Amino acid sequence: MPSSILALLITIYSGVGVTCLVWPQRLQKMALRQSLGVERTHPRLIILIGSWKYIFFLRAVGVVSVTAALLLLSGMAHHT
Hints:
The longest helix is centred in the last third of the chain and has 28 residues, at 52-79. This protein has helices spanning 3-22, 24-34, 43-49, 52-79.
């Protein structure tokens, strides 16, 4: 894989990971605002997004994303 594509993937995964790890409550508030129109048709969605499980999910996504970025970075360092 070309190094420019690897660099792009590392940047994307790092950005997603850091955002999910540092600001999960802010992402939760944004998700709640975006889903206000569907509360009549999907009330369980609002309950899920408002719960602690959603924060846990965001942090898990953050850990996986940062790990993927670090693995790509180490793979890129070994190939150059």
